[in-house]
Amino acid sequence: MNTLFDKIWDKHVVQNVPDGPTQLYIDRLYCHEVTSPQAFAGMRERGLKCFRPDHIYCMPDHNTPTHDQDKPIEDPIGRTQVETLAKNAKDFGLRHFGMGQKDNGIIHVVGPEKGLSLPGMTIVCGDSHTSTHGAVGAVAFGIGTSEVEMVLASQCILQQKPKSMRINIEGKLGKGVTAKDVALYLMSQLTTSGATGYFVEYAGQVVRDMTMEGRLTLCNLSIEMGARGGFVAPDEKTFEYIKGREYAPKGADWDKAVAYWKTLKSGDDAVFDKELTFQAADIEPRVTYGTNPGMGIGITERIPTIDTIPSAGVESYKKSLQYMGFEAGQSLLGTPVDYVFLGACTNGRIEDFRAFASIVKGRRKADHVIAWLVPGSWLVDAQIRQEGIDKILTEAGFEIRQPGCSACLAMNDDKIPAGKLSVSTSNRNFEGRQGPGARTVLASPLVAAAAAVTGVITDPRTLMN
Q1: Element (H or E) spanning 347, and its range?
Q2: Which architecture characterizes domain 163-233+265-282 according to CATH?
Q3: pLDDT tens digit string along 163-210?
Q4: In a 3-state reduction of DSSP, which class is residue 282?
Q5: Rounded-to-integer distance, Cα 382 and Cα 169, Å
Q6: I need a surface site. Which of 69, 272, 332, 367 has the fewest CB within 10 A?
Q7: Rounded to whole angstroms, how far apart are CA atoms 185 and 166?
Q8: Radius of gyration of the chain, Cα coordinates, nearest whole angstrom
């Protein structure tokens, strides 16, 4: 019996090239402003039109400022990229969710929440965190700029078929443990290359119990284990999430779609190239201590000592600790924090803001902490206000910024200054990722909120009722 990955992949094969890649049909192409300009330039040079323009959606997100979006972007490179995307979308007749429009935000937040990303689809974007869309039961993965051009021109892509892996997480998550902690735990166990060459299906009781927002976070971080992508088989929770969304099927089309989506699961006798099982009881709230997402510990644990590090990783371990200013065997609890960032395609959804607000309610932001709270879309921003979360945050001394990728990566105004320590809900903690010389500790919204109100890295469970 085929795996779910096989089912979706095989349904989209146009042709198999002998001793070569597969020509794969793509249902949805998302374009943002950073990885698409050269692709559109190549189309112009060859005098080509987009083959299926109604399957392509454009949205600026990386360079958009998170304040004063009604004014011109100050950074000339960022402004050029955003304006170029708008022009390319217009010239090629593509749907464009421009900056400041109600439909704008981070493409990996907006796609699922608008019902553009659907079960059984193949979805690509010139961005590694395209794997996020796998949470709805789609095969979604990042591609390079030349491949973006390929999809613009043909709605197909040439790809080697990855191997399949199933990761089961069994049991019930403990107090204060979120999908982000699950992902950070998996990365520490598999390392950042442990899933290289695989497409991961997440399964088990923990995944079944997760909200759709949690699954989106989990799938978002698949790439950080080296995987080509990650996804979750669609279930009733998926259908409930999608139903009624703007681009979701309606009426009889909905019934027909759900009937098909219910077939999208791996068979009981499906054989995976690799299968792993982990236990929820082993996972606590987590933080990273190094300069890749796999260098993480439980919040009550200590940084590993050099004798526990495999010889191949010793040099990067030493270099990471030196960059971060941490020591072997150190506990990170009580470490002073300069910046807190809530947002990104990893944790910029309404559930993340609810979690953050649950910790800060009735408390105050630490005076020395600079906090950037950035919704992943204007819809999330509207939900924050409808639910009164904005009032809780304002009373606690926080302000909500405008949607965008923000401090996930140093491509806009939201840069962490050199040497400063940031507790961030984003997806990467590489050297300079949040700004030249910035030091990043990856964490969940609960851990970020606890740091924001105490001013130091804090176990959020000590602040929970």
Answers
A1: helix 344-347
A2: 3-Layer(aba) Sandwich (3.40)
A3: 999 999 999 999 999 999 999 999 999 988 999 999 999 999 999 999
A4: helix
A5: 33
A6: 367
A7: 16
A8: 21
